[in-house]
Specification:
The complex is a heterodimer of chains A (291) and B (319).
Chain A lengths: L1 H8 L5 H10 L2 H23 L31 H5 L4 H28 L1 H16 L2 H12 L3 H27 L3 H8 L4 H38 L10 H8 L8 H28 L6
Helix pairs in contact in A: 2-12, 3-12, 5-8, 5-10, 6-8, 7-8, 8-10, 9-10, 10-11, 10-12, 11-12
Chain B lengths: L1 H28 L4 H6 L5 H11 L5 H13 L14 H36 L4 H15 L2 H15 L15 H35 L2 H8 L4 H38 L5 H10 L3 H29 L1 H9 L1
Helix pairs in contact in B: 1-12, 5-6, 5-8, 5-10, 6-8, 7-8, 7-10, 8-10, 9-10, 10-11, 10-12, 11-12
The chains are: A mainly alpha (291), B mainly alpha (319).
Chain lengths: 291, 319
């Protein structure tokens, strides 16, 4: 790990293009990227693509099987499932992208900063980071939801509190690789402030590690949001959401499996895509993320 | 060595203390206190004030924190808000056995299984068995627990009706009554757990197989099984101990969803009910319990790694 990181940084600055070159040679990574883009397009264009209203109730069609008019069938309120599956990832996707971005920026900054400063401040910060990591993911989310009530802002905050500390750990370790090196010593000798050293010298060097973290956290947050919705603390009905749809239609599993199958395929393909992309980036960067 | 152990233990206790502050702050100091939770948001200010005084909520937050922490240390978490006259400790104790049993079964089957599959995938890297195992693992870790659980219910609970689809037995049911209810939740946990751990074992083994000492052992003329089992594997497994501990600890969260899917009467299901009821003392106790478990498992993994790796031990002692 140490050797690969150092070797990588002795190459010139065009690393992002090189990463892309390696990335696109992996079929799995490309497939993931394509599915991910499809998901983003569908989420954005859902209102235009959906043939019916996602919330229109039609008792005559309750639990109707897939047909030409309703390709994914209908749920127990007769709502068109295709029109619900199409926008069903919007909230999970938005929260996972925003949550992963905030986690990476905040966690990354905290990690690099304390990794550079070190000393007592670093010790204290890492204890808080450890404490946040120690409350198992879903439990922390549930504790926060109990305290603040569920709402998208609270869920986003809870996600950042759950996932930023892990990023901080990784970023701190990555920063430690560079702190003893000459260009940092030189910057310090020039009299640069810690903030300048962190932002101008360290941050660009840990960016690619953070890119992998971003893709990974995004897939975890997508899973966590759907889990929260499934438990009833995430998206509120009647808003279409895959996790919520699976929870709602689960009791009709034997009668109308289509109510569950299509949301499962949707969430599954999204998370598989995010994982494939994360794997692909990690491999292209020479970092093995499954460790 | 003793110093190292003491240091780790003290650090773990400090972490747990900070966890208790985080849990207390996020549930009690923030808006929406226990009195509002009991009486509802539309309650009159006078009634709220009276209840706050009765519960001691008008005292400074720091005093209440100390009192709560003191109780927690003695294993007393106060009374449940949703189920009056029942102590939080009793509610947890009733269900703890079931969750421990569920996780123990899942870990006892899942750990060896993921090890075996990870080694197979690592040895046959990029060949058919590896591609198969790795693909299934990727799908396993990409599907939420409740999806895997729902598919299992559909297959074995509804279509084949081999096993109970959801648990209807009370928390204190005797073991032989509970056991059939345990199968599907355990399988769900195993699928998710194996998916994560086998990936770590695989990449760790691949790295070890590419190392100089494995090449050396092969060149010495040692048999392949000997090289793999005695040279590569022990070194490959060392870094996975912590990763395994993380996954097992992560299961603590997974248990919440899995128990809810199957209505399994464990502390995970209890947590969800507690959040629904805004039963703050119960949520606090379960949050703290989960974190304590997580910290204990990680401490165990740390000490185990330290014990198994003289190199790491020597390096840390020099520092």
């Amino acid at each position: 790990m140490d050797a690969t990181i150092i070797a990588r940084y002795t190459t010139d600055g065009s690393s992002l293009r090189e990463v892309w070159r390696t990335f696109r040679h992996s079929t799995a990574a490309l497939l993931g990227a394509i599915i991910l883009v499809l998901h983003l397009v569908v989420a954005l264009a859902a209102p235009l693509l959906a043939p019916h209203s996602p919330t229109a109730i039609n008792p005559e069609l309750a639990l109707a099987a897939p047909s030409w008019e309703h390709p994914f069938g209908n749920d127990r309120f007769g709502r068109d499932l295709l029109s619900r599956v199409l926008p069903g990832g919007r909230i999970a996707l938005a929260i996972s992208l925003a949550g992963a971005a905030l986690s990476v920026v905040l966690g990354g900054f905290v990690g690099v900063m304390f990794g550079y400063v070190g000393g007592l401040a670093d010790e204290a910060a890492m204890r808080i980071v450890d404490a946040l990591i120690s409350i198992p993911g879903l439990l922390l989310l549930l504790v926060i939801v109990t305290g603040l009530g569920s709402g998208y802002a609270v869920i986003l905050l809870a996600m950042v509190l759950s996932y930023a500390p892990g990023v901080a750990r990784v970023a701190r370790a990555a920063a430690h690789e560079f702190v003893p090196r000459d260009f940092i010593t030189a910057a310090r000798a020039r009299g640069e402030s810690p903030l300048t050293v962190v932002m101008r010298e360290l941050w660009p060097n840990v960016l690619d590690v953070l890119l992998v973290e971003f893709a990974m956290r995004a897939s975890w947050i997508a899973l966590a949001v759907s889990g929260l919705s499934f438990l009833g603390f995430g998206v509120n009905p009647p808003t279409p959401d895959w996790g919520l749809m699976i929870a709602e239609n689960r009791s009709m599993l034997a009668l109308a499996p289509w109510g569950v199958v299509f949301p499962i395929l949707a969430i599954g393909s999204l998370v598989v895509a995010l994982n494939l992309v994360a794997d692909g980036i990690a491999r292209a960067l020479g970092l093995d993320r499954s460790r | 060595m003793l110093n190292l152990i003491t240091q780790r233990v003290v650090l773990s206790l400090v972490t747990l203390l900070i966890v208790s502050v985080i849990i207390f702050v996020s549930t009690e100091v923030l808006p929406g206190d226990v009195a509002t939770a009991i009486l509802g948001r539309e309650a009159s200010p006078a009634r709220l004030a009276a209840l706050r005084e009765q519960l001691g909520l008008d005292r400074p937050a720091f005093d209440r924190y100390l009192e709560w922490l003191g109780g927690a240390l003695r294993g007393e978490f106060g009374m449940s808000l949703a189920r009056r006259n029942t102590a939080v400790g009793q509610l947890i104790a009733e269900r703890l056995r079931n969750t421990v049993l569920l996780s123990a079964v899942a870990a006892a089957i899942g750990l060896p299984l993921s090890l075996a599959l990870g080694v197979i995938a690592g040895l046959l890297r990029d060949r058919v068995p590896d591609v198969l195992i790795s693909t299934i693992a990727l799908i396993g870790m990409s599907l939420p627990e409740f999806v895997i659980g729902s598919v299992l219910i559909l297959t074995f609970g509804v279509l084949w009706a081999l096993l109970p689809a959801v648990t209807v037995v009370p928390p204190d049911a005797p073991l032989d009554v509970l056991l059939p209810n345990l199968v599907l939740p355990a399988v769900t946990l195993i699928i998710v757990m194996v998916a994560y751990i086998l990936r770590m074992v695989r990449s760790s083994l691949i790295e070890a197989l590419a190392s100089d000492y494995v090449q050396m052992a092969t060149l010495k003329g040692l048999s392949r099984p000997r090289v793999v089992l005695l040279h590569a594997l022990p070194n490959a497994l060392l870094p996975t101990i912590n990763a395994v501990a993380l996954t097992v600890a992560w299961l603590i969260g997974g248990v919440v969803v899995v128990e809810t899917v199957f209505n399994f009467p464990g502390i995970g299901r209890l947590m969800v009910t507690a959040v629904e009821d805004r039963d703050l003392p119960l949520v606090q106790a379960l949050g703290l319990l989960g974190a304590a478990l997580y910290i204990a498992i990680n401490l165990g993994a740390d000490l185990l790694t330290l014990w198994l790796s003289p190199r790491l031990r020597a390096r840390l002692l020099q520092m």
